[in-house]
Amino acid sequence: MIEANLPVLLIVIPMITAPLCVLAGRGRIAYAMSLLASVLVFAIAVALVIKVGDSGTIRYELGGWEPPYGIEYVVDRLSSFMAMFVSALGMIVLFYAPHSVNKEIQPSKHYLFYATYLLCMTGLLGICVTGDLFNVFVFLEISSLSSYALISLGRTRRAPLSALQYLIVGSIGATFILIGIGLLYQMTGTLNMADIASRIDTIDGPRTIMVAFAFLTVGLCVKMAVFPLHTWLPGAYTYAPSVVTCFIAATATKVSVYAFIRLVYGIMTPKFAFELLPLDSALMVFSLIGIFVASTAAVFQDDVKRLLAYSSVAQIGYMLLGVSMSNIDGLTAGIVHMFNHALIKGGLFMVAGCFILRLGSSRLSDWAGAGRTMPWTGFAWAIGGLGLIGVPMTAGFISKWLLLTAAMQNGWWPVAALMLLSSLLAVAYVWKVVETLYFSEPSDAVVASTEAPAGMLIPTYAIIGCVVLFGIWTTYSAGLAAAAAAELLGATP
Amino acid sequence: MTDPVNLIVLSLVLPLVAFVMNFVLGNRPNARECSTVVIATILFGVVGLLASSVFDGQRPELFVSEMLPGFSIAFSVEPLGMIFALVASGLWILTTIYGAGYMRGHHEKHQTRFFGCFALAIFAAIAAAFSSNLFTMFVAYELMTVSTYPLVTHHGTAEAKSGGRIYLGILLSTSIAFFMMAIAWTWSLCGTLDFKQGGILNVPYEAGEISTLALGVLLGLFAFGIGKAALMPMHRWLPAAMVAPTPVSALLHAVAVVKVGVFSLLKVVVYIFGIDLLQATGVNLWLAYVAGFTIVVASIIAMTKDNLKARLAYSTIGQLAYISLGAALATPDSVIGGGMHIVMHAVGKITLFFCAGAIYVAAHKKNISDMAGLGRQMPWTFGAFLVASVSIIGLPPGGGAWSKWFLAVGTAETHQYALTAALMISSLLNIAYLVPIPIQAFLKPRPDRDSNHDSDHSHDHGEAPLACVIPLVITATLSIVLFFAAEPIYQALLPIVSE
């Protein structure tokens, strides 16, 4: 009974727990409930990965209604992999949360915070498992609306403003997506992704379809924060509460990339996307420009959260570069980089959260010399930073290496060279922080600071440890990603 | 236990044990250093045992894991790597003893971190030495860069920061931008990255998949991507790294770090390109001239440096280019000469750095112009300096004479007489910048007043601490011994250039 309903439990548990948190009305109870829910969700996701690995794609008819009348959940290798790492990060960030939340968010709002956090997770997980295009839109809005709310909880008055900016840009993106879905529905008469895919070929005159895909692509690009549609991201990441930034930075944009991969490989088919529409060259150009512009911008930031935010925009470029290669190696690289980068960036934002907790500021100039008074936190930054650069023995190296060899196999020499050059910019912005942490004279505030609490350090090191672990042992990162990529390219539904 | 494969495992694990022991025994310095010396000695023994089977013709292999499909971490021991591992592990013992004396004599902080990172760097050196494919070598190479960064910036001053920035900046960016590119390119051509006797690139070349010009470009990517080989213009990191405490400069920047660079280059030339392919296409000659240029220019710059460590740094750049030259000429003799020079230069240069550190600990002198007359107070130190200089210059009875001989033969065989001349000029320049230092220390009188000197030390400070003097006397002796014992090294290296 439970086993058969695992796909829907993944969504239902956090969705039901969220209003329960509100009903509880107390921060601590809400925290305990949401922690429990996140652990359960993670366990379900792991069970799904195993089950899909053993017996192949799971199709689940919601409420027993057959598609195309009802909503269908489809859990294949890629979606179970995504659900696993989204829920894993959601769980670990929750373990990390209490100290930071106590400091940064008013106690009276704690229960609302946890409820919204769970809703956001619901939305993200929903996108991963649903097989219905309109349902994707619904879950996207659930996650987006809850993240607007989460971001506006930040300490400064800039937070609501950034949330509003994100709301406006994000809603425009959502509108584009909705228009795209509407056009597809008009042409195919179905909202089930597999159905749409099977009917696309039969229609004469693909102009409307092309317009539909253009709308969908642009809308998703806003959500993915692809350059030049990334403007909402730096502000949102910078002014959101630290815990929110950790979670959203690690998961939200990646889930949008996932939705995009589904769109390209599950609905459009690569032939349509890359031959009829020049999506591959368009993506490649925007990815590369984005990588360079955003990395350069990151080098010049003083606010560490903003620095990491720009770095995220650049890293999205690497993922899309992989996706746009439309061969199995490139796609593997893109998928595995979602996972690896989620670990790395999540870990680094957690480190930043530790510093912010103790030093009360996210400005690099206020962190001068803090590596000496907070050695564990500082060391975690160094390891995570090496991962971001892509030094061997870290997860970042694996994805960079795969991407590089994929580019070589495609004969994309300039792309390979530019990719390597761009990672030098990562050296610059990571090491800028390392130098400030270890070589600058500490201020009085820094001298008075103490090491971050174990409650935050342990989850941080769990993630940072994974950055190293998945740099050495890739069975469950690159291995699963390669299997997912093969499935996408081989048997597109 | 003496199964060669077990020995490989042991020699990789032991430095990691030393790394862990350092932190376990962190607050008991005597126990900490003793454990390192003991482990280093065991390591040397293990590597020695391994050497005896490798020089008998065995090629033990150890497969660790496949990190990505086609890219595995695996080790196999061949003579070149064996010799490099012997040098690195043997000198590690002496450097630890020396380092203990130096760091305490100098009241340095963070000694635990220091010796810990040191052990990690040795691990990287051994891993690179035994690597059986380019991928493993690259991983070890980068681990070496990262693990030595805290050593270079040990003092935590603004100077250390900017030195560290150049160090990491050049080494990381060359390896990411060029070395990694070259490896990926090789992979896309050959579908393998394994080191193979006779090279692997001849297959795609003969199949017409890579043009002669592109082969030259690939060689360039390797040569400049391996920034640790310090070919000009990628040499700036080496002088910058001299902000490190002297034991670091001694082991890492005379032996481990720089030798990983030239060793990798030699290995790429011999086992990836294959010397036959390079000889047939001639794409290597331009690199030989870059090396020749580096040899001469680095020696000239060395003459202008008054700071002893800076002078030694530029001398190292020049001497490394000897080995790069050996690789670039790609004749059997030149490759053997390059391989031998890894040993000879390591022993000679570590002696010179030990001496520089000893002078600094005892007399607090950094500049050569202040060292006049010190020889009578520190006869062992300056005596060793003179002996090691002879080896570096390449005069008998110093070990360096042999390696230089084979390199010169290599230049003559390929009829590149300009390069022969470069070697000879370099020898003269070496005499000019090394020999005056001990000479003026012994023969010139001491100046009456010296300005930058505190009163405690202005009188007879005598020799450096015993822990500093003993290692440098041993290494100086070794550089003479190697002159008479060069035959085994030659015999050991012979198999790598003959089918």
UniProtKB/TrEMBL annotation, chain A:
<dbReference type="InterPro" id="IPR003918">
    <property type="entry name" value="NADH_UbQ_OxRdtase"/>
</dbReference>
<dbReference type="GO" id="GO:0042773">
    <property type="term" value="P:ATP synthesis coupled electron transport"/>
</dbReference>
<dbReference type="InterPro" id="IPR001750">
    <property type="entry name" value="ND/Mrp_TM"/>
</dbReference>
<feature type="transmembrane region" description="Helical">
    <location>
        <begin position="239"/>
        <end position="261"/>
    </location>
</feature>
<keyword id="KW-0472">Membrane</keyword>
<protein>
    <submittedName>
        <fullName>Na(+)/H(+) antiporter subunit D1</fullName>
    </submittedName>
</protein>
<feature type="transmembrane region" description="Helical">
    <location>
        <begin position="411"/>
        <end position="431"/>
    </location>
</feature>
<comment type="similarity">
    <text>Belongs to the CPA3 antiporters (TC 2.A.63) subunit D family.</text>
</comment>
<feature type="domain" description="NADH:quinone oxidoreductase/Mrp antiporter transmembrane">
    <location>
        <begin position="131"/>
        <end position="425"/>
    </location>
</feature>
<feature type="transmembrane region" description="Helical">
    <location>
        <begin position="338"/>
        <end position="357"/>
    </location>
</feature>
<dbReference type="GO" id="GO:0005886">
    <property type="term" value="C:plasma membrane"/>
</dbReference>
<dbReference type="Pfam" id="PF00361">
    <property type="entry name" value="Proton_antipo_M"/>
</dbReference>
<dbReference type="GO" id="GO:0008137">
    <property type="term" value="F:NADH dehydrogenase (ubiquinone) activity"/>
</dbReference>
<feature type="transmembrane region" description="Helical">
    <location>
        <begin position="111"/>
        <end position="127"/>
    </location>
</feature>
<keyword id="KW-1003">Cell membrane</keyword>
<keyword id="KW-1133">Transmembrane helix</keyword>
<feature type="transmembrane region" description="Helical">
    <location>
        <begin position="452"/>
        <end position="473"/>
    </location>
</feature>
<dbReference type="InterPro" id="IPR050586">
    <property type="entry name" value="CPA3_Na-H_Antiporter_D"/>
</dbReference>
<feature type="transmembrane region" description="Helical">
    <location>
        <begin position="163"/>
        <end position="188"/>
    </location>
</feature>
<feature type="transmembrane region" description="Helical">
    <location>
        <begin position="6"/>
        <end position="24"/>
    </location>
</feature>
<feature type="transmembrane region" description="Helical">
    <location>
        <begin position="281"/>
        <end position="300"/>
    </location>
</feature>
<feature type="transmembrane region" description="Helical">
    <location>
        <begin position="208"/>
        <end position="227"/>
    </location>
</feature>
UniProtKB/TrEMBL annotation, chain B:
<dbReference type="InterPro" id="IPR050586">
    <property type="entry name" value="CPA3_Na-H_Antiporter_D"/>
</dbReference>
<feature type="transmembrane region" description="Helical">
    <location>
        <begin position="285"/>
        <end position="303"/>
    </location>
</feature>
<dbReference type="Pfam" id="PF00361">
    <property type="entry name" value="Proton_antipo_M"/>
</dbReference>
<dbReference type="GO" id="GO:0016491">
    <property type="term" value="F:oxidoreductase activity"/>
</dbReference>
<dbReference type="InterPro" id="IPR001516">
    <property type="entry name" value="Proton_antipo_N"/>
</dbReference>
<keyword id="KW-1003">Cell membrane</keyword>
<feature type="domain" description="NADH:quinone oxidoreductase/Mrp antiporter transmembrane">
    <location>
        <begin position="131"/>
        <end position="429"/>
    </location>
</feature>
<feature type="transmembrane region" description="Helical">
    <location>
        <begin position="37"/>
        <end position="55"/>
    </location>
</feature>
<keyword id="KW-1133">Transmembrane helix</keyword>
<feature type="transmembrane region" description="Helical">
    <location>
        <begin position="342"/>
        <end position="363"/>
    </location>
</feature>
<feature type="transmembrane region" description="Helical">
    <location>
        <begin position="207"/>
        <end position="227"/>
    </location>
</feature>
<keyword id="KW-0472">Membrane</keyword>
<feature type="domain" description="NADH-Ubiquinone oxidoreductase (complex I) chain 5 N-terminal">
    <location>
        <begin position="71"/>
        <end position="115"/>
    </location>
</feature>
<comment type="similarity">
    <text>Belongs to the CPA3 antiporters (TC 2.A.63) subunit D family.</text>
</comment>
<feature type="transmembrane region" description="Helical">
    <location>
        <begin position="75"/>
        <end position="100"/>
    </location>
</feature>
<feature type="transmembrane region" description="Helical">
    <location>
        <begin position="6"/>
        <end position="25"/>
    </location>
</feature>
<dbReference type="GO" id="GO:0005886">
    <property type="term" value="C:plasma membrane"/>
</dbReference>
<feature type="transmembrane region" description="Helical">
    <location>
        <begin position="112"/>
        <end position="130"/>
    </location>
</feature>
<feature type="transmembrane region" description="Helical">
    <location>
        <begin position="248"/>
        <end position="273"/>
    </location>
</feature>
<feature type="transmembrane region" description="Helical">
    <location>
        <begin position="417"/>
        <end position="443"/>
    </location>
</feature>
<dbReference type="Pfam" id="PF00662">
    <property type="entry name" value="Proton_antipo_N"/>
</dbReference>
<feature type="transmembrane region" description="Helical">
    <location>
        <begin position="464"/>
        <end position="486"/>
    </location>
</feature>
